[in-house]
Amino acid sequence: TNIFVEAKTIKEAYEKGNKLLNQIKSYMLCNKLHINMTKCCYIYFRPKNRRPLDDEDPFDLFIDNFPIKRVSDTKFLGVVIDENLSWDAHLTALRRKLGYASSTLYKIRDNVPVYLRKELYHTLFESHLTYCISVWGGCPMYKKSKIWTSQKRCLRLLFGDKEAFLDKFRTAV
């Protein structure tokens, strides 16, 4: 569940947040529902040029006098969201996933018929690449260039000339 609070000042935002959390706690108690406090966290979204909140700032969010931890990024429905909405953390995690997929495809490519490679690419690689692309795909191209490189590498591993690929390493000293 996500809750968004908007205010003109930081203090006002935290006051609104705590008031809303008290109302949510009352609702949860009335309906005999439970909040998993170990999973609760919050992000203070801010423009990149605004100074970050210090750890010494007196602002905190609480549910039943239990403090909620503040994080700079968190994963929500498979997308890593950070406080600046820069998508750097998500792109790093995505590159890691795509690297695992490329590695798996490289290991099995000699044991799979050529006509199935395209299906495996769509299943193991492209599914990660296109997941929620409408959310993070609007980031600048210079941030997405490493993802594009990972995609090209995977396609070369699957469909490229294997002998030419291996020959690069035979001639190196």
Plain-language structure description:
This protein is mainly alpha-helical and 173 residues long. 53% of the residues lie in helices and 9% in strands. It contains 6 helices and 6 strands. It has helices at residues 10-30, 88-108, 114-130, 133-136, 141-159, 162-171, and strands spanning 41-42, 62-63, 66-67, 69-70, 73-76, 79-82. The strands form 3 sheets. It has a two-stranded parallel ribbon. Strands 2-3 form a two-stranded antiparallel sheet. The mean pLDDT is 83.
Notable features of this structure?
elongated; 6 helices; two-stranded parallel ribbon; 173 residues; mainly alpha; two-stranded antiparallel sheet
Short recap of the structure:
The chain has helices at residues 10-30, 88-108, 114-130, 133-136, 141-159, 162-171; strands spanning 41-42, 62-63, 66-67, 69-70, 73-76, 79-82. With 173 residues, it is mainly α.
The shape, in one word, is: elongated
Give the strand tally: 6
Read across the widest sheet, the strand sequence of neighbours is: 1-4
Write down the secondary-structure element order. HEEEEEEHHHHH
Low-confidence stretches: none
Mean pLDDT: 83
Alpha plus pi helix count: 6
Beta-strand portion reads 5-15%
